[in-house]
Design goal:
By secondary structure, this protein is of the alpha/beta class. The chain has nine helices and five strands, in the order E-H-E-H-H-H-H-E-E-H-H-H-E-H. Helix 2 packs across helix 5.
Length: about 200
């Protein structure tokens, strides 16, 4: 039986990571795009060297690792810079994700691809179904300031270059309201997965 490949995406701070954790506890295989990104941007990697040429050599720490906060500040300062970042990282990430798919699909009915930039990277075309998580700006802003320890202005700058709720509603197969209480968010996800699995 063909493995179903389900994209999980949404607005930053809407609660996608929480749903990914639910899914993992329920026994689904998860491929995490951020983890794949960290792998392809490991110390002294070709991808990291290329980004240093574009965004400045100081995005590489003295130990050879990426200064993710500084890179994010520069890459998310404009739509143009975000597009440049994506043009370097997305092909390498997709290649790494494909490696995981090849491994997991041997014994899994469903693989969930946790990818904040699912549409921007073009990986939505790989998915059988797409679940998007959305939440109001004020909810996301509060979560991100608390979670990432960055200023409201930095969060708003990051949000400004990302896709809006209307886009996700128009392009995803299923929508989860991530502003609801945890038990409601989990119930939304469980009901969607029943539909995906045809049960």
């Amino acid at each position: 039986m063909k493995t179903k490949f389900i994209g999980l995406t949404g607005q930053t701070g809407a609660g996608k990571s929480t749903i990914s954790e639910f899914a993992e506890k329920m026994g689904y295989k998860i491929i995490n795009a951020d983890k794949a990104a960290r792998e392809i941007m490991g110390n002294h990697s070709d991808c990291l060297k290329r980004l240093a040429e574009i965004f400045g050599s100081d995005i590489i720490n003295s130990d050879g690792s990426c200064n993710r906060k500084l890179l994010a500040k520069r890459a998310f300062s404009s739509r143009e810079n975000t597009d440049i970042l994506n043009s370097v990282t997305h092909p390498a990430i997709i290649s790494r994700v494909q490696e995981y798919i090849d491994i997991y699909s041997k014994d899994s009915e469903v693989i969930i691809f946790d990818a904040p930039q699912l549409f921007e990277s073009g990986s939505d075309k790989m998915c059988d179904k797409i679940i998007a998580v959305v939440a109001p700006v004020d909810v996301r802003l509060k979560r991100l300031v608390s979670r990432d320890g960055i200023s409201e202005s930095d969060v708003l700058m990051r949000m400004k270059v990302q896709l809006d709720e209307n886009f996700f509603r128009a392009n995803a197969d299923y929508i989860i309201d991530g502003s609801k209480p945890l038990k409601d968010v989990r119930r939304q996800f469980e009901e969607i997965m029943k539909k995906v699995m045809g049960t």
